[in-house]
Design brief:
single chain, alpha+beta, Creatine Amidinohydrolase, Arc Repressor Mutant, subunit A, five-stranded antiparallel β-sheet, four-stranded antiparallel β-sheet, 7 helices, 15 strands, globular
Amino acid sequence: MSLTVANASPAEKYKAAGQITREIKKQIDSRDWRGKTYAEICEFVEGEIRSKGAAPAFPVNVCANDSAAHYTAEIDDPRKVSENALLKVDIGAHIDGYVADTAVTLCYNEDLIEMAEATKGALGEALKEVKNGGKTSDIGRVVENYAARRGYLPIENLSGHQLDYYQVHAGASVPNVWAPSLATFKLGNFYAVEPFFTTRDGAGVVAEGKTRNIFSLVARKRTKDKKLDDFVELIWSTCRTLPFPARWFKEYYKKSELDSNIAQLLKARILRSYPELLEAKGQPVAQAEHTVGILPEGVVVLT
């Protein structure tokens, strides 16, 4: 990290993190990932984030077809991108805890290109409604109406979110369907806006899957087991309370040791896990996402 960035204001660090994710998203979008493993995508993106002077704000989410969120590559993960995948790559970077969050959908299925483009269109329309003092519920109204006009369903139980210091999900939600709410966009705050669309045959909601391979630290407390305490301190020094995968620690532990440590810390409620989220009727899901800042100069799209 350069001295200039290290001494920058929080807003400047948010902007710098956003610029990094914007550059990497372009790289992701310009490549054909069919036949590549999920691990290759995650390692490429996370490596680029680190090489540009930031750190991953969460493990890269690589989710295909009906998987909407919260899947990342595992250690020695054999999964590959299929020839007709609808692939979501969700990336986050932080500089000194100031987070930018963005996503791109790569569509290798001709039948789903229109839905992927519609999701991007909904994001563009939603961003026009973001303003200081504006209601976050207005975004839900715009996204829901846009989806209906294009013939798709928004995922109603996934939403955008406020970002904060070392927090990916903080404060206000930014919904994808209209619901009464008093929450407003506030000057000096940063938000991720992220529509998710599925087909008319979908449920329009996601359900928890069986896979849980993303974790975060809930409490930094002693367990009376030095091995576990050392692991907790390693997590804290690496990512504090931001989400992480087991593979980030494979240079320190064998896979069996990591699995055991994580299982014990989950049982002790020192860690929490995030289940993979799947469209409830198995229909494909597309995603588009930008981070915006509500700044004195106006609403700034960072990613």
